[in-house]
């Protein structure tokens, strides 16, 4: 039946050309490069701080060093994820291996939690058994080095993360920026120690532990959203506006977006005039996908389904109604 074929015209024209494949590989390569450089910078920073911890006995600086070390180690699971993400999709992993970034995120959350627990333990122990801080000047210098190293890494990760569309890399950059400010907090402990306040150092250590816990909360929330296929609602609004401008689209029925690693995928349902040919419906779907891929940032592929709008009273999905989940998609119009 002509109407039925028009109503279910599918156009999964993915634009998976050699250029898009090369672009995907390039984004992963840039991500790997950022991780390698930032790992080296943060490990060098942590090494300098660790040496001062041994010489000074500062528990605040110890907490900051552990935090910086954990931040450096987050590069390992992310590097593995970027490497896996370059593999081609296959019959088992039909969407590819981009989800490895989300698994890496879980490892990152665990590392942050471990650094918070260890820093908190050491701070409490020093509160119960206060100790004099030695080489206070070196503690202050190490704190400044920690801030400078983290701020440089933060800017680098955030810049490249936004350019390649990697939320994990951007989040890791924001994490590094927070680490930089906790490094500055160590200066307070060093200043208090210089004034003879023996509890200043462990108190600042506890404050740093609290700061790490806030970072942990934000990181866990970000990973939870990715695991639950959450996207910014503004992206859905943008996609609907783009689709509404396509010639031949009467109404945007639904838009579903999901992240696979640092790539965005879309599934779209459109209403078109019920008496157009299959060829015309197909052309509308192709144009809709083309507009989305070019105008929606970081969208790599879209599957567009066209449904007939009319005639009045017709239900082109009647046979599917009993099989569909109750309730309507919040993005669905009408």
Automatic annotation (TrEMBL):
Residues 303-334 are annotated as: Disordered. SUPFAM superfamilies: Cation efflux protein cytoplasmic domain-like (SSF160240), Cation efflux protein transmembrane domain-like (SSF161111). The keyword Lyase does not apply. Keywords: Membrane, Transmembrane, Transmembrane helix, Transport. Residues 233-308 form the Cation efflux protein cytoplasmic domain. It is a multi-pass membrane protein. NCBIfam families: CDF. This is Cation diffusion facilitator family transporter.
């Amino acid at each position: 039946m002509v109407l039925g074929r028009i109503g279910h015209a599918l156009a999964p024209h993915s634009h998976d050309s050699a250029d898009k494949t090369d672009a995907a590989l390039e984004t992963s390569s840039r991500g790997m490069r950022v991780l390698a450089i930032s790992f080296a910078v943060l490990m060098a920073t942590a090494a300098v701080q660790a040496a001062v911890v041994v010489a000074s006995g500062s528990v605040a600086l110890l907490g900051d060093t552990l935090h910086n070390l954990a931040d450096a180690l987050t590069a390992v699971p992310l590097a593995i994820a970027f490497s896996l993400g370059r593999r081609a999709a296959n019959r088992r992993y039909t969407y590819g291996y981009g989800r490895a970034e989300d698994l890496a995120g879980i490892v990152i959350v665990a590392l942050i939690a471990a650094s918070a627990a260890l820093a908190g333990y050491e701070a409490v122990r020093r509160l119960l058994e206060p100790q004099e801080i030695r080489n206070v000047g070196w503690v202050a210098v190490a704190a400044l080095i920690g801030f400078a190293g983290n701020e440089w890494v933060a800017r680098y990760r955030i810049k490249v993360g936004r350019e390649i569309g990697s939320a994990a890399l951007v989040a890791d950059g924001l994490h590094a920026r927070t680490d930089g400010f906790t490094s500055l907090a160590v200066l307070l402990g060093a200043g208090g120690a210089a004034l003879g306040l023996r509890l200043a150092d462990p108190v600042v250590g506890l404050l740093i532990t609290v700061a790490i816990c806030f970072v942990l909360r934000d990181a866990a929330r970000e990973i939870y959203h990715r695991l639950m296929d959450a996207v910014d609602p503004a992206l859905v609004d943008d996609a609907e506006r783009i689709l509404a401008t396509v010639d031949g689209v009467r109404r945007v029925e639904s838009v579903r977006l999901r992240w696979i690693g640092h790539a965005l995928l879309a599934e779209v349902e459109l209403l078109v005039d019920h008496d157009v040919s299959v060829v015309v419906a197909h052309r509308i779907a192709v144009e809709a996908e083309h507009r989305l891929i070019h105008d929606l940032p970081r969208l790599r592929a879209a599957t567009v389904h066209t449904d007939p709008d009319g005639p009045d009273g017709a239900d082109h999905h009647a046979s599917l109604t009993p099989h569909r989940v109750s309730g309507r998609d919040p993005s669905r119009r009408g």
